[in-house]
Write a structure and sequence with these properties.
- The chain is an all-alpha fold and about 230 residues long.
- It has twelve helices and no strands.
Length: about 230
Amino acid sequence: TYLNQAGTINLTLANFKKAIDYYDQALASDLKTYGEDHPNVAIVRNNLGIVWYSLGDYQKAISYYDQALASDLKTYGEAHPNVATDRINLGAAWCLLGDYQKAIPYYDQALASDLKTYGEAHPDVATDRINLGISWASLGEHQKAITYFDQALASNLKTYGENHPDVARDWSNLGLAWDSLGETQKAITYFDQALASDLKTYGEDHPNVARDRRDLGGAWHSLGDYQKAIDY
């Protein structure tokens, strides 16, 4: 337990090599104490996956996430938050390797599990749908992406209301998807909402606000209104 905690402290401090050393020791100890299929062993493997993910070694991260998933499935079965988390981690790693076809089944399974655990209007379910939307958008399937982004937006509006970073992100994602389909006017409506929300949350000098303005500038440029583009 102390070794795992020391690993987590070093992970938080971005001392990744030290974190790996502590997690490796914790894993060796827990394997001797509990054997393969125990929640503590799965937790340490998941933590090792997170460190290697942070270091950009996604294949090594996937190896640990796979082992954590196999263990947690035996411990908890399909519809459990830990299993959903394992699948989300695997989906994220495959996305960063550019293999969205492998990522999507993990995100689909995580969504199905989280729907059973939490129901429709829950932030984790909304996040699963955003992950799926981004993955489908990356494959050029923008209509599919919009379906997931719309569902996430509806959920997050109920959870957080208008002026929240997650809602602004959903509007931004929808704007990008519609823009990719050539529906630039529709995209501008979403970009405007994202900007208004982010301004209330962050004020003028924030990267998210700059991103929103860049998106609006690009959209107006596409429509040939160069003066509006310049203003943003």
